Here is the input.
Amino acid sequence: MHYPVTDKQSALNVADVVANPQFLLTKPYTKSCERWFKENYPGYEAFLTSSCTRALEMAALSMDIQSGDEIIVSPFNYVGVANAFAMFGAKLVFVDIEPNTMNIHLEAARQAITPKTKAIIAMHYGSVACDLDGFRLLCDENEIFLVEDAAHCIGAKHQDKPIGLWGDFSAISFDAQKNISCGEGGVLLVKQKHHSVVEKVYENGTDKRAFDRGDIPFYSWQCIGSKFAISEYDAAVLLPLLQRVTEITHDRREAWNKLFAAVKNHDILSTFLPKHLKDLNHNGHIFWLCAESTEVAQYWVDWFKKYDVQASFHYPSLDNSPFFCGDGNTTKTNSIELSGRLFRLPLTSPTETIRELLAVSNA
Ligand SMILES: Cc1ncc(COP(=O)(O)O)c(C=O)c1O
Here is the structure.
């Protein structure tokens, strides 16, 4: 069982909104969260959304995807990422992953670029960064968008800068599984040069924001958009957690490091450890292991279950899904192969139990 981090100040903030219902219109907590992102992600505008999936849909709309435009994306991914682009008629071009990180492979992405390519989606699995300089350069050279799927990445850094600072658009999740959560929520970080398009998409395709600033006398429908905003109640919950991101990330890393030490001492599980551990700036979001076969991974998931520890698989590979390829896929990718062997151990609870269990099972 995963236990999301909460903060008493969130409850006080929600009570503040209840006592001041005009806040549902003026949205001071949403604005404070957006200011927090602007300060911590310089050069970017922030749009708080009701989920990271919605943030990615907003990116897709802002890129003006037309039927047949190609989006390069890793198949080892959350299905909402694929849907966010497919729903606007994009053709998904799946390129394989690097086995060490489970992240999209830079050279494979390079090979997949065609004149129809509109964007590359770089998802940072467990907040271990993709080759961001490489992807930024590749996208610039080919004049295509880089979208960072930074769903896992709040508090995580790459080269001492927050992950999210390389994309044209970067999306972060605050759903209940994430290091920081308001139940459901997300943010789309947008490079300033794309800001004027995105602010219309965010407001149902209107120039309402310009009107609210007093730039124009009335607002009107300008393009296709939708309603993406987070609820003010959720923003009230989120704000104190964002303000504690350094401490929460530190605690999460501590839990991750302790689990790592226990697994490293275990005769069998230590052989399943990934080799990405040189990256010291991840936020401890995911602790994953990769067994030598699906059967062995299942054995360990069942073994942990006997002790009430919920180990779990992750992301059935999208290039093997009934929707994408029916039931006739014969291609073998790293993503298909490894997603059947990867399993995660919980980090928020009960790491103590896991450590004791592993010590005993090793003895
Ligand atoms: C890699 C990745 N991207 C995007 C999402 C979507 O996030 P949300 O649940 O906030 O829509 C998730 C969800 O866990 C995810 O794992």
